[in-house]
Batch of 4 targets.
Target 1
Amino acid sequence: TRQTVMQQERLRAFGQMASGIAHDINNTISPAALYTESLLETETGMSRQARRTLQTIQRALNDVSNTLTRLTDLYRQREPQVVSAPIDLNQLVRQTIELTNARWSAMPQQNGIVIRMVTELAHGIPSIRGLENELREVLVNLIFNAVDAMPSGGTLTLRTGIAKTGSGEGEPAGIRGVYLEVVDTGVGMDEEARRRCMEPFFTTKGDRGTGLGLVMVQGVMERHSGELEIDSAVGKGTTVRLTFTATEAAVSRPAPTAYAGTASKP
Ligand code: ADP
Ligand code: MG
């Protein structure tokens, strides 16, 4: 969609700016780090207090450098991923539900959170190609967002099925795609959040949020040539839909049509 494209361009522009700034800061702090190190090594007669102060400076410089590395990693335009393996989305969903269990079952929701897994096809869905780690991280982020959005309980549905892709220009229509939806019955997003949720560092969670979750999700989806759509209504909930191109390979192993779990402790 046009909006998705605009968001991608904005993100790219932001990424370029961020890595430019990171580069400048690195150039500024690296002599400082070198001088600090050389002082610590050569000035053997310095007081304990002075040594400790220098070590603190060294740690601080090191932290800055690590932060910059993380920031630039986040925006680095990686090569389209070639090394990828066939992935069964249903399997991925099941694994991730287990992985995140501790988080949602620990939430003090009054009514608990019910997690459902629904798949359109009882005989399994076509596999997709991708990086399992990255996709699992995407799903973890989306599940955490959904849990955060349901402070007084609700239902989280993870739905997979067949989607039509190729509606865009230059692509043949009707290619088989696979979708994965994360649907919550939470607070939803207001107009501002809806507009700005993909912006780096935009968060409505104060100190608890980083505003980088959806940025990461978007980055992974781009590398997988997938599509990300968000549909949200205040007071009703949010649906995040990820669409991937299915591989030619046949259908993945059969999956149960529904998975139900609940975080509520009766
Ligand atoms: P964070 O979770 O650290 O705030 P994200 O990038 O994951 O950062 O999300 C950005 C913002 O988008 C959130 O702060 C929230 O306002 C909004 N948001 C994301 N997912 C949902 C959701 N499922 N329901 C309601 N709001 C959401
Ligand atoms: Mg988040």
Target 2
Amino acid sequence: MIKKAEFVVSNTNPEKCPKPDRAEIAFIGRSNVGKSSLINMITGVKELAKTSQKPGKTQLINHFMINDQWYMVDLPGYGFAKVSKDTRENWEKMISTYLTKRTNLCGVFILIDSRLEPQKIDLEFLLWCGTEGVPAALIFTKADKQSKTQTDKNVKAFLKKTEEIFEEAPDYFVTSAEKGQGKEEVIGFIEQLVEE
Ligand code: GDP
């Protein structure tokens, strides 16, 4: 259960994140995938993460303290159509440094838009995590946007693609920030990770 969620700090430099003295879980995904909405839904704090960041805005690593016990981290999204090469390279450097060097990181959730067929950019990011040994799970977002049948179809298609990459399918959750769907499941999974 999440009883308390507070903003701690924003960073552009992964080396300057808070002291890695407690378990940490991160969220990432394509811009507009619904990451901020999901973080707000999960924590029950309406504007904890800022929704709908525009491309070109500073890319920040945002730390939140949960229950005075663990860190939840909102990472800058990928896949903006129109960002400069510099911005993209900056993002890559920042994210790869954070994900590979953060000693207290227990897992990263990769958010996937449940309305879409498998997207190359998401699969590539998942593959990169696998290669680097970063433990990743999937969250399919915006499930309320279409029928359950359509959501299931897209989820299945994505999982099938992951079978081409990994022996074991990643853990996954289907959520809707709009309806509160998947909240308990995601929190339960995080609690297991942070208590290990
Ligand atoms: P971010 O850029 O990944 O942080 O995405 P946001 O959380 O800002 O969401 C992008 C857009 O999708 C906003 O207009 C949200 O209201 C909408 N959105 C996010 N999650 C959901 C959801 O679960 N259901 C519906 N219907 N819309 C959502």
Target 3
Amino acid sequence: MYPLRRNRRLRQSDAIRSLVRETIITPNDFIVPLFVTEGKGIKEEIASMPNYYRYSLDLLAVEAKELWSLGLKSVLLFVKVSDSLKDNSGTEALNVDGLMQRAIKTVKNAVPEMLVMTDVALDPYSIYGHDGIVSGGKILNDDSSAVLAEMALSHAKAGADIVAPSDMMDGRIFEMRTLLEDEGFYDTGIMSYSAKYASAFYGPFRDALDSAPVDIQDIPKDKQTYQMDYANRDEAIRETLMDIEEGADIVMVKPGLCYLDIVRDIKNAVDVPVAVYQVSGEYAMLKAAAERGWLNHDAVMMEQVTAIKRAGASMMASYFAKDVVKLIS
Ligand code: PBG
């Protein structure tokens, strides 16, 4: 008696494995998150994100050019706002000459073909570190959505190709889409963080932008009233289908690795591209383990990004984008 089928035949050599490989990583898979700060000549490393930096606008331009030369054609911008400009209504977020608005123009001037995506949420602008307006111990939904729509419009006016609302307010995609259409921005895309979980993996990101929720009495100390409970699966589908109905062009699952079941569920349920955000804590974990010699950095990194794509992601925002592209080129 012989085994009827011998699957190992197709694993015998690198040549045969390459031939039957189902998932290939290329530079086209990546969106590069970039952190921007005020000043000049600044490239400061983020303490909890080794080898990841905040750039002032002059060095943001240099970085954008380098990314383009590596074949990385999309960036996702985040800004670190000084405390003096923070309030509870997102005033600075709408400033036509604010840091985000200038960052968009800087990247577009440096590399006109670069796809520029922008984070739309109030947390970097909020004295409370919340994604929306806080009142009576709550994050106000509709008032926040209205400001977020104005924020998206402001980014579009500055030249953003795609706005990426990461706030999880109900109905904000509809508000945004309606305002963009009303104002003639028909071609501005919306990449919705549609299934965004209340995750402890965002810690290093909040260090990078100094945007963590504050610990003040009567102010919610976490984001659980708007971001999703990580115990839930059906809810992710509901959120995502609603965002598509409301006008999202691309939907996103966030974080990445712990949520690949959700990615596959959503991939099977929708007919728009699905993005994944491999978040700051996922990056920090691997960097820390690799620094100690406990994990092989490059091997684990490739395994992770391949798993994200295999699960159904058409694209991923990843802090590893440059490392990966350098490794595979
Ligand atoms: C802001 C925002 C966060 C991230 C992206 N946009 C943090 C949060 O929701 O608290 C997290 C990204 C990361 O951890 O890499 N709304």
Target 4
Amino acid sequence: MAKLEIVLEGDPRLRQKATRVKHVDDSLRRIAADMHETMDAAPGVGLAGPQIGLMRRIVVVHVPKDEEEDQEEVRLTLIDPEIVKAHGKVYGQEGCLSIPRWVGDVPRAETVTVKAIDLDSKHIRLKASGFLARVIQHEVDHLDGILFVDRVEDRSTLFEVTEEELSKDEYATIAE
Ligand code: NI
């Protein structure tokens, strides 16, 4: 496994549409493992192919357990993910590993149903709500060249976290 370099805002690859994978092979499985390692080390809760310069439709997600929010720990690799259903609208704070230190309020669907294939090329379908639904929508956006700052409706909610706040680690849990 290897930690990969994360592509930062300004790089044109973050603005391109990634292409479908269709067939999962060992090389993609190795990249997926590297993506999980890179996301965990960052640390972050999600990472999409274009963020490591890979223009394929693959995302990894790791949402930690949160008892207050009734959220179980979830770790996912989604290939060719498609959001097939979306309900509701909720605002929540997001950050992005490709736009370090910036956070803002982003509206997202409250629940989504996502179709994808897994690392064994098996078709999967899952329903997500709350923070997990938010992370999945953020990552799928990356595959279409969309960044969370594009979705911020009220620009006054967008701000740069100070080094001191960053060291408290409270914003590490929303970088994706
Ligand atoms: Ni991001």
